[in-house]
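Pasting as-is:
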Amino acid sequence: MKLYKTILLGFLFVLLGSCEKENAIENNYNPEDKGWVLVWSDEFDTPTEDNRPNPSKWTYELGASGFGNGELQNYTDKEKNASYATYKGEGCLKITALKDGDGATYSSARIKTEGLFEFKYGRAEARLVLPYGVGLWPAFWMLGADYATNEWPACGEIDIMENKGYQPNIVSSALHMPGRSGGNPVTSTFGYQDQRFDTDFHIFAVEWDKSKIDFIVDGTLYHRVDKSSVSDGEWTFDHPFFIILNVAVGGTFGGNPTDNTYFPQSMYVDYVRVYQKQSDIDPSANYGDVPSGGLVDEWDFNGEDSDKGLLEPEMK
């Protein structure tokens, strides 16, 4: 991401603050009031016996291959890297990156719903607190469920939220597809002038249908990608995807840790929820055990739109 000189930031913030938030979702937004049906969720309120992610809902990516991005961590299935916890009174899942030399210099976790839950079209959202530090790369994303036979990027990838750990007030989204993948995805960023993603919970969501994909932070729709507008890539988002949560260390996205990067670093996940329109629900799909009632809280939104590269973060 190109960072503009500080001298320009005051003007840009004024400009951003004066923009009418035409795409903002109203306060107290309840997805079910808009016709969304809750089909799958993990609220992370009740720890499992071994304090690790519920095996009926999550499995693990394992290993230290670098995953094509030059990442430095070894992904494990150990409690130290993914466990239940409490953060600000909320029951959560905690995904933790450690500098502990377990299979690599760093260890972490990457959990996914592959083989357990997948869906085509809908709204996926997670309420998260992000880690902080140079070389941290937390992400909430989805991968085409046919990736084993329809190799990436043909399977498609929907990055709902990615963050460069040294930019605590900026997140980004991306679509990877043939013709627009790797370092050239369809991407956008969202930032706050006076809020940080590593100090409190924020809600990251995607709304996806056959004609478009919308990216939303704290109720603000900041990026819409219409299928009809993609002329330089092959749209490959009309099949089922599964969900992934991870904290990577190092790599091409945000660089590697420095001597000043503090470990351990954790991403706290209050919940993950998936909604669909009634017409998109597949009666043959395995949606698991969906709790009924009381799932949707009122949200207090205070979003600001931003364009790519306009916000330079303050460092701790």
